[in-house]
Amino acid sequence: MNKYDLIVIGGGSGGVRAARIAAGHGAKVAICEEHRYGGTCVIRGCVPKKMMVYAAHYAEDFHDSASYGWSTTVNGFDWSKLIANKDQEIDRLNGIYINLLKNAGVEILNGTGRLVDANTVQVGEQTLNADKILIATGGTPFMPDIPGIEHAISSNEVFHLDAQPNSAIVVGGGYIAVEFAGIFNGIGTDTSLVYRSDQILRGFDNDIRKHLANEIVKKGIDLQLNNNIQSIELTDDQRKQVRFTNGTEKTVDCVLFATGRKPAIESLNLGNAGVELGDKGEIKVDKYSRTNIDNIFAVGDVTDRIALTPVATMEGHAFADTFFGNNERFADHENVPSAVFSQPPVATVGLTAEQARERFNSVDTYTSEFRVLKHTLTENTERTLMKLIVDADSDKVIGAHMAGPEAAEIMQGIAIAIKAGATKADFNATVGIHPSTAEEFCTMRTKDS
Q: What's the confidence (pLDDT) of residue 449?
C-alpha cells in the first residue's frame, strides 16, 4: 500500500493549490481527479463562461462603434468557432495545472477517489494510505425532478452544444442563470429568463437587483418572474415544448437549468470514514477546514461556505500552510468580493444595505445612477448604478456595490480599501481619476433619503 502525508481528492483550484503548497513544504502528496485538472472554474465554469460573455458583448460594441466613426460590417456569429477556440484554451489551462502539480512533486492520479476508511483512499485498482486526506470535489448542478427534465441541460453541457440555439429558456435567478441569459441574448438567441421568485440575484443588494433586471429587459431578454417550468416535452422536430406554472407554453431549441449547485459527494463513500454532513449535503468543517474526523479535511464548494474559486484557493492554501508549513492560519471569509458577469456586469463586496441595517444601529447609504461617458455618443441607453454602505457610528465603509461596465475590475480595488477598514472620509479624501466611472466612488457626498 502506497503511503502519503496527504491525499487530495479533487483536482480543482482548491485541491491543486493545497497539494502544491503542501508538497512545497516537503510533504509527500498524491492527488486524484476523475475528470480534468482545473476543476469547475477552469474546465466548465467561470473561465469558459467569461470567454462566452466577451463573445456576446461584441454585438453591442460593434453597434456602438458607429457613433465613434467606425464603419463595421458584421457577417453573423460563428458558434462553432467560439467553442473550438474555447476548447483549445481550456486544453492549454488543463495542461498548466498538470505541470504545476508535476513541478511541485505531487503524484498525479486519474480516477475517482473513494474513502475506504479514515486513512485509506481507493483510486481505481490502487489503494492509498495517508496521514491526512483533503476532499476538494466541488459542486455539481442541481436538476429538479419534473417531467421531461431529461430534455434540458445544465451549465455543464451548455459549453459543448453542437450549435447555437435559435431560442432558449434559462431557468433560475442566480449568477449562472443571469450570465447565460446574457450570453445567449448577446449572440442573437431569442432568450427567456424564468425565475420562480419576485426578483433575480437573491442575496444581492436590492437596488442592484432591480437595476440589473431593468437593464437586461432593455437589452431584449424576456424576464419572467414568479414563474417556473412545470414540464418539458420533446416535439417531432426535436424541439422542447415547455409548460409553465402560470399556464402558458413556449417551444424552444434549448432549456438550460441553472437552479443551483449541490456538493459533489456521491462517489466519496464518506460513511466509510464517518464524515459528518450538513443539511444541504455539504461537508461540515471548522475554520481550519477540518471535518469531525481529525485527519480528514475539506475545502471549496463541497463545504458550501462561499462557492467562489478564489475562496477555495484561499482555503486550500491556508490548510497546507497550517498542517504542513508550520504556519497556523485560517481562511478569512469576511468581505469577500464577487462579481456577476451579466450584461451589464455586477460586482459587490461587504454587506448589502439590508444586511447592514440588521447588524448596525445606524446605516448611511450613498447611491449614484448615471450613463457612462462611453455611451453618451451612442444610442446605448444602459445605465450604471454605484452604491456605498456606511456604518454611521464609525464612518467605516461596510459595503460597496456596482452594476455597470468594468464593475469587477473597479470593485477589486474597492475591496482592498474595505478590507483595510477605510472610512467614508478616506473615500472622500481620495482624488478620483477623471474621466472614469470609478471616480464616482470618491465623489458621492449626498446620503440617500
A: 87
